[in-house]
Amino acid sequence: MASIFSRIISGELPSYKVYEDDYFFAFLDIRPMVMGHTLVIPKKEVDYIFDLESEEYIGLMLVAQKVAKALKKVVPCTRIGVAVVGLEVPHTHVHLMPINTVSDMNFKNPVVQLTPEKFKSLAEDISTAIE
């Protein structure tokens, strides 16, 4: 059965896409820990990040870097935090989160509530800022 992320990539489920190429996809997390919380995933469904082929792993990190730079331009923050947890969805994904303190990356923090309009405009702004 396809992961929820594969269903997002195929368009079966909606998303707030910020980036897509032939191999990778990035979109806003719909349960964001902070404003701008973005997920970067390979289109190929691989559960564990270290099971990716070396070229795929490097490509994923390069896309994450590209998206993170755009995210930092759009969302005021000190840094873009990066996390790979990999337990909640069986599809490799990199969390990118605009942060000002370490506690901003605590996954037990309450989810930030954003309107669909805010999600859409944020996704568009990040997408436009990608070089």
Main attributes?
131 residues; alpha+beta; 3 helices
Overview of this structure, please?
The chain is α+β, with helices and mostly antiparallel strands. The chain contains 3 helices and 5 strands, in the order αβββαββα. The protein has one domain: HIT family, subunit A (2-Layer Sandwich). It has a 5-stranded antiparallel β-sheet with strand order 1-2-3-5-4. Strand 1 and strand 2 form a beta hairpin. The longest helix has 21 residues. 34% of the residues are buried. The model has no long low-confidence stretch (mean pLDDT 96).
| Overall helicity | 25-40%
CATH topology: HIT family, subunit A
* CATH structural architecture: 2-Layer Sandwich
Rg: 14 Å
**What is the CATH superfamily label?**
HIT-like
Please summarize the sheet with the most strands: 5 strands, antiparallel
First-last Cα distance: 35 Å
Average pLDDT reading? 96
Number of domains: 1
